Amino acid sequence: MCGESVIEASTTKVSSKGQVVIPANVRKAASLRKGEKLLAIAIDDTIVLKKIVDKSFEETMKPVWSRVRQMGLSEEDINALIEEARSENSP
Questions:
Q1: Quick one: average pLDDT of 29-52?
Q2: Which band of pLDDT confidence, cut at 50, 70 and 90, is reported for residue 83?
Q3: Are 9 and 82 in contact (CB under 8 A)?
Q4: Who's near 26: CB < 8 A, 6+ residues apart?
Q5: pTM over 0.85
Q6: What is the tens place of the pLDDT at every residue in 44-57?
Q7: Which residues contact 49 (CB under 8 A, 6 or more apart)?
Q8: Which of 4, 33, 47, 63 is most buried per CB count within 10 Å?
């Protein structure tokens, strides 16, 4: 992937039916459109969503792990992004 990475973070809630709204700024940053499929991955209490593009699970995940390593993101970094999003969106 060329150029700078776009990182967007926002908070959302889980409905009583287990549904989650992906905030508009996050959808825009990911170029996510109505009807596109997502892969949901749980790593302990961290949830990652990845757009699915007619590839196998391994092919879909390869760039995810590559980008995480490239960006040097740790679990602490992800938690810090979450906290930042919470503080920006709290009343």
A1: 88
A2: confident
A3: yes
A4: 8, 9, 10, 32
A5: no
A6: 888 888 887 766 66
A7: 22, 38, 39, 40, 41
A8: 63
Cβ–Cβ < 8 Å for 48, 41? yes
Give the DSSP H or E segment for 28: helix 24-29
pLDDT exceeds 90 at position 16: yes
- Say if CB 18 and CB 45 are below 8 A apart: no
HSE-CB at 70 with a 13 A cutoff on CA atoms is 11
Q: What is the pLDDT, as a whole number, of residue 60? A: 66
Residue entry with tokens 């930042």: 84
What angle (nearest 5°) sits at the alpha carbon of residue 43, between those of residues 69 and 60?
60
Separation of alpha carbons 71 and 74, rounded Å? 9
Q: What is the Cα–Cα distance from 69 to 64, expressed in whole angstroms?
A: 9
Q: Which two tokens stand for residue 16?
A: 């009583």
